[in-house]
Amino acid sequence: MSSRKKDDRPAPGDTIVPRKAAKPQFASMVLQLEAFVVAFAALALYGLRDSVFEKGLLVLDSTAAMWTVTGVLFVVLLVLSRMVTRPGGYVAGSVVQVPVLALGLLLPMMYLVGGVFVVMWFVALRLGGRVDAERAAYDAQHPETAPNA
């Protein structure tokens, strides 16, 4: 049983589990969501392959090429979502935004969707860093509630 007081402050001797950093969590979440949007874009491309509706500036005649392009991008996004904490992870995540936007060449609606995710990516980096800085400042002012790891 926990020896927590009514105000939820840790008792002497309690261990406080450190919080995970917000910036990598936000960045990873955006890349994972983006991967599934790419998967749904692949399904849309496959469904519209014989359509008379307007297609993008680039048309892939081969179904295999379409699945390969979107499949590789899907896997790259998922792998990068797990690597954001490593050196160069945020840079690689920023670079992979270009091919997501380039999917607009195949499916014009991806310009809009990719643009939304580019904005989400940079907001995640900015706000995640801000949340981490505010947590660090709070922990410095309140050492009794700071993680003792």
TrEMBL record:
<feature type="transmembrane region" description="Helical">
    <location>
        <begin position="58"/>
        <end position="80"/>
    </location>
</feature>
<dbReference type="Pfam" id="PF14017">
    <property type="entry name" value="DUF4233"/>
</dbReference>
<keyword id="KW-1133">Transmembrane helix</keyword>
<feature type="transmembrane region" description="Helical">
    <location>
        <begin position="26"/>
        <end position="46"/>
    </location>
</feature>
<protein>
    <recommendedName>
        <fullName>DUF4233 domain-containing protein</fullName>
    </recommendedName>
</protein>
<dbReference type="InterPro" id="IPR025327">
    <property type="entry name" value="DUF4233"/>
</dbReference>
<keyword id="KW-0812">Transmembrane</keyword>
<keyword id="KW-0472">Membrane</keyword>
<feature type="transmembrane region" description="Helical">
    <location>
        <begin position="100"/>
        <end position="125"/>
    </location>
</feature>
